[in-house]
């Protein structure tokens, strides 16, 4: 009888180095896949508009267009008022009034308070321009001026009344008059320095001499 020889298959052993290599590749691929997914998701979201309202649950009650029209009409009926602009943007009601050019500072300031009283009658300050711990409300700006295109003239007056929602009372400031006149003049002088006298210039009598033959020297004083 002949004996058959059976060849034993050699088992391949997994080396420690191979295991470490595979684990390293897996560890590197995890953050790559993660950031790739985030990038893909962000790319899909770029075509989707996002809508929001930063005044959600605030500005309650809201100022209506009918109320702004009523204020505009009433202000145009005030004495010594030429033009009126009413703007409601970003929770700020801004009123701009151009008065007669002949008004003095006292007259412009009086109209400023009259504009405030007109708004108060339509939009009470306690209701529309006073915030509390739970909600934000509107801010108020009133601009009243004369000589709309003549701010460099002596008779130019400009007052601003401000009432923020966090303020208890309004304040009025004359912005056409500097708080520190001396400092304002120094700034104007720095921006517009006087012209320097050219170096070597001589003031006094001018002497001209004729040097051609047959011409006597002449002196001009």
- Anisotropy-based shape: elongated
Mean pLDDT: 80
Sheet with the most strands: spatial strand order: 1-2-3-4-5
**Tally of helical runs:** 5
Return the string of H and E elements. HHEEHHEEEH
Distance separating the two termini: 153 Å
Broad CATH class of the domain at 65-174: Alpha Beta
**CATH fold-level name of the domain at 65-174:** GMP Synthetase, Chain A, domain 3
What is the SS-derived class? Answer: alpha+beta
Q: How many E-type strands? A: 5
Outline the biggest β-sheet: 5 strands, mixed
CATH architecture title of the domain at 65-174: 2-Layer Sandwich
Q: Which spans have pLDDT < 50 for at least 5 consecutive residues?
A: 207-215, 217-221
**What's the helical proportion of residues?**
25-40%
As a whole number of angstroms, the C-alpha radius of gyration is 41 Å
What portion of the residues fall into strands of 2 or more residues?
15-25%
Describe the structure.
- A hairpin with a 2-residue loop joins β1 and β2.
- Helix content is 34%, strand content 15%.
- The protein is elongated.
- It is α+β, with helices and mostly antiparallel strands and 221 residues long.
- The protein has 5 helices and 5 strands, in the order ααββααβββα.
- Among the domains are: 16-44; 65-174, 2-Layer Sandwich (GMP Synthetase, Chain A, domain 3), CATH 3.30.300.
